[in-house]
Amino acid sequence: MKMHNPPHPGEVLRELCLKPLGLTVTQAARALGVSRKTLSGILNGRGGISPEMAVRLSLAFGTTAETWMNQQIQHDLWHVERRRKKLKVARLPAA
Amino acid sequence: MKMHNPPHPGEVLRELCLKPLGLTVTQAARALGVSRKTLSGILNGRGGISPEMAVRLSLAFGTTAETWMNQQIQHDLWHVERRRKKLKVARLPAA
DNA sequence: AATCAGTGTAACGTATACGGTTACAGATCG
DNA sequence: CGATCTGTAACCGTATACGTTACACTGATT
Predict the structure, then answer these.
(1) pLDDT of residue A38
(2) Which phi and psi angles does A94 have, rounded to 5°?
(3) Global confidence as pTM
(4) Using the beta-carbon criterion (under 8 Å), do A77 and B20 form an inter-chain contact?
């Protein structure tokens, strides 16, 4: 039960990957093989980490794709949970 | 390093949730608050588990949304990893 | 045989997301 | 000033998620 707004993965990406290596957005985008716009959108919280992007990040930075996807999921789920009450779902008996 | 095609979450959903409770697709869709088509698509591997759907499943079956999202991610990543070679990504020094 | 519930799915619509290119404004630096 | 980096708007195409309606098929039940 996460209580606080988890940072979007882009924030983590910028702080933990770009900053330490002194990479510019332009350089990182080129390295990842995506457009500068796409990376910029992620870094500034306007876009999410797609499965393909997660694999790109894992290849470029030597991390795992799961790490990035998990962050994205935490972020996505947090937003959905906020409107959980609005979802009309019947509680079924546990299997 | 997963080697085998992970089952799509719909398969798990049908076997572990619908079957044990003797639920029809129609009944389950109604309980989840989605259309029969949407649930059918997931059950037959034509659609994925969206974050909202993951929360619906957690509410209906008393599981966690993360459980469902993780299954979806394993499935998604497996497909992307298959074409990992095609992604032109530069390897950067570890941070 | 006829009816009905359940199922998959096609056809159509909408909204959102991801990806790209181009182009522009603002900042910073030599 | 000229060069670089950045964010982002405008536009495109594609894919996904969701909905409704309608159809054909199956397997029970009557």
Answers:
(1) 98
(2) -60, 145
(3) 0.93
(4) no
Q: Does residue B1 carry a pLDDT above 90?
A: no
Tokens (6 digits) for A55: 């694999």
Burial A21-30 (b: 16+ CB within 10 A, else e): bebeeebbbe
A42 Cα to chain B: minimum distance (Å) = 17
DSSP conformation class of A14:
I
Residue–nucleotide distance: A42 CA to C30 C1' (Å): 31
Condensed to tens digits (0 to 9), the pLDDT of residues B8-60 reads 999 999 999 999 999 999 999 999 999 999 999 999 999 999 999 999 999 99
Least Cα distance to B21 among A81, A18, A92 occurs for: A92
Q: CB–CB of A69 and B77 under 8 A?
A: yes
**What pLDDT shows up at residue B2?**
61
Residue of A nearest to B68 (CA): A73
Round the CA-based radius of gyration of chain B to a whole number and report it. Answer: 16
Cβ distance B60 to A20 less than 8 Å, yes or no, reads no
